[in-house]
Design brief:
Blueprint lengths: L7 H23 L13 H24 L7 H22 L13 H24 L11 H21 L16 H24 L8 H19 L7 H46 L3 E5 L5 E6 L15 H4 L2 H17 L1 E11 L2 E12 L8 E8 L1 H19 L3 E5 L5 E4 L1 H7 L3 H4 L14 H12 L4 E8 L5 E12 L5 E10 L1 H6 L18 H14 L3 E8 L2 H5 L4 H17 L6 E4 L4 E7 L3 H16 L2 E3 L2 E3 L3 E8 L6 H17 L5 E3 L2 H20 L5 E10 L4 E13 L3 E3 L1 H11 L2 H21 L6 E6 L1 H4 L4 H12 L6 E6 H6 L1 H13 L3 E7 L6 H6 L4 E4 L1 H5 L5 H16 L3 E4 L5 H10 L3 E2 L10 H12 L4
Parallel strand pairs: 16-17, 19-21, 21-22, 22-23, 23-24, 24-25, 25-26
Antiparallel strand pairs: 1-2, 1-5, 3-4, 4-5, 6-7, 6-10, 8-9, 9-10, 11-13, 11-16, 12-13, 14-15, 18-19, 18-26, 19-20
Helix pairs in contact: 1-7, 2-3, 2-8, 3-4, 3-5, 4-5, 4-6, 6-7, 7-8, 21-22, 23-25
Protein name: EAL domain-containing protein
Pfam families: EAL (PF00563), GGDEF (PF00990), MASE3 (PF17159), PAS_4 (PF08448)
Organism: Castellaniella denitrificans
Amino acid sequence: MTIHPAHLGETRPAFGAVGALLVILVVATTLRLPAAASDLSHLLPLHMALETLSIVAAALIVRLVWSVRHENPPANLLWLASAFLGVALLDFLHVLSLPGMPDFIAASPIATSTGFWLAARFVGALGLLAAVWMPWRVRPARVPQGARQLPVLLLVLGATVLLFRAPPWLPLVHTPGQAPTAFMVGAEYGILVLNLLAAIRLLWLMRLPRRFNVGALFASACIMAQSEFFLTRHTGATDVYSLFGHVYKVLAYFYLYRAVFVAMVRDPYARVDESRRRLQATLQAVPDLVVVMDARGRYLAVHAVPETARPGPDLRGRLVEEILPPQAADTVLAALEEAGRQGVSRGRLLSLRIGEHTRWFELSVARKPAWAGESDHYVVISRDVTQRHESEQMLRKFSLVVAQSPVSIMILDRAYRIEYVNEACTRLSGYTSQELLGRSPVDLWSPRVPTATVLAMTAQVARGEPWQGELVSLDKAGREFTESVLVYPLRSADGAITNYLTLRENITEKKQAAARPQALSHYDPLTGLPDRALLHEHFQYARRQFRTLAVLWVGLDRVKSANDSPDHRFGDAWLRGMAQRLRSALRAQDVLSRLSGEDFLAILPDTGQQEAARSAQALLDSVTLPLRLEGRKVVATASVGIAMYPSDADGLDALLKHAETAMRRARAEGRNGSCFFTPEMQAHAVHLVALIHALRQAQQRGELRLVYQPQLRLSEHRVFGAEALLRWDSPQWGTVCPAEFIPLAESSGLIVPIGDWVLRTVLRQIRVWRDRGLSGLVVAVNLSAVQFDQPNLTNRIGRLLDEAGVPPHCLELDLAEATLMKTPDIAARKIQDLHQRGIRLAIDDFGAGHSSFGHLKRFKIHKLKIDRSFVRDIDADVDDQAITSAIVQMARSLGLATLAKNVETAGQLAFLKASGCDDIQGRHFSQPLESEDFERFVLRLGGNPT
């Protein structure tokens, strides 16, 4: 059986006592006692003393419960006390009627004394069983105490009369030899069973939360049962078993008294003490200042001090005038006076200046009745209501804002009846607020409003969706006006719709102003140029009037940088300036339109190819002139694509598409130029689309592969690493040149998954080579600008290294100069992260860009790779020789290694070696090789690089 944890503290000693006494019982009943133990008549005074103790214990139990009867103790204890009142009386009669005692009423036989004994044991066992079997109620039913004791007293009286006046009516309890009869032994066993039932019930109650001392009651019931067991074995009133039975009975009464004492005295006082501690803890946890004062405002006690008040620990004994400013002190004294008259005072506010802020406090005062001879005390709670006060102030401001808002505001209930209108609403409608409250806003609409509109609005807002539209309303004088109406459902905290908010604005004048020519709406609001719709109208007109015309797509190459400036207004001003310049470079009959943020379109009527080319150059010249805005000089370029009507297409949409294609070709060829559309461009565009589509599937189809070009260390003449080069073998186009498909991959975003595949494949190959003994190889991988801009680049590469089990120093990442120079600060941080992971870094094609040496010092790189353009003619061109030597010397001064790419001839090799270049790669040394061929090449050239 599982005992509830609340009972463990009391049941352990109870089980221990019951177990120890049970051991004594077993020993005493199993040992053969000497003959002298069967008759201990010389110990009769001890028997009398034990009986007296039991009577005193029973009386104490009765007295203890009787003394707290007005505290509404549980009914169980009241019934138990009534039963033990009978036990005490019956035991007393038992003692008085013992043989050898003075005659009590008349000379009493041993049967009379034994009868009182059995009656007392029966009443005690039955009373205990009833007490533990009844529900344990804290506040019992209202049964008078006499009503509980009367049955017991009647039982005692009946037993007395019966035992003294009618002994023959009772069964024999002793044989002529004074041995107990079967009836008496059976009676003792019956009482034993009653006590055991009480003990079993108490064992069951140990599973439940603690409400009384179950352990002591259990020990009492068990010990009473053991006492009865001894008495079933006795052969006379003075033998050893009878003596043991009396001793156990006294012990049982002791545990019973203890249980009653705990339930009636100790536990209530413990609960009072616990309640006091909880009250004190609650007061300490209260965020309010709680103090006790007398009527004069003297601090008597301080129970809780919030952080905002902090009056200090020396308030006791001081008057409120000594602590608070005069106005605040008067407020406190007024609250005390009101509480003295009415018992409580609430809602008075006082303000205190604490630090640099003013805080507001609300007082609650309650009179605490005093004991006789003392004056009344007052409990004062000071609550910081600064936030609430400020919120109320803010709500009052919001109320004024709503009331005085120039927008007409209505609040409707769920039945669409008006509950509130502000002043603007009354001015708009001409009705007073009293005339509008309770009405439906539909009553204010013109009869010309369709019923379908009303139904649609009602259905939409009933679904919890806002409705917005225009309605024609009538004012009080019957005049019509147009208003823009927004009906918005208001929801409670649980999401239920409680009201509807209606915002109304008179837009009659706006509607009249909107009646201006519709053409005004077809112009770009930023530049004032025609939009695409108006452009179509101009094109149709020009095509009807002229046999030829040119369409020029002007793409500004630097507009994005301008728009990305910290001040967006600067970008808008720059676009307006560019639009004015483009417009001034065209003829009066030409049409200029802005298509998007960076693209403009010009239609040039009656224009051939030569005139179109001259106009395109004029547009380019106007763009490249410096533009000064807000003290800054901005220089830009443009790219122009030209399509001709009708030779290229006869529809504007097709001409726009062709002009855009030509513009992109001009931009790809170096920007700041123009290009005419040709059919080959269209075919090339189609080819690029098909190529991108095939490239999307190339990786899954296994069409991509890697080759490795060896890299030679000149000082040691050994292969120390390789550069991984990507190849695409397409079933449709054959081997596609990397210079063709890699830019497509970058522009389409495919370079990211392809780059991940390259890194994963290279790292697996390094792992294979290391397992085969080539542990010193370093493989370089080109990293595109798109890959470098990925936010989680370092973590992704680190994860791939961990998956392959390759040390970071075996991987070298090649970065283009332009990638680093685009955002040097961000690039420096990313390079620092990669460097800390142990990954080697190199700048590829160094010298072809516009690196700053100051920026170069910030980058944690290991190597500079000299651009191939300087190596190609290095054996004959003195300029290339000078540049290459300068790069080598600068790298050496910075502690960086150098590598020359595309070394094709012995003359190139000789100069590079003489200039101090560290490493080379190129076809003069070896062409790119498959992985197996590269491994054999390394082993054949110099064995295992380590």
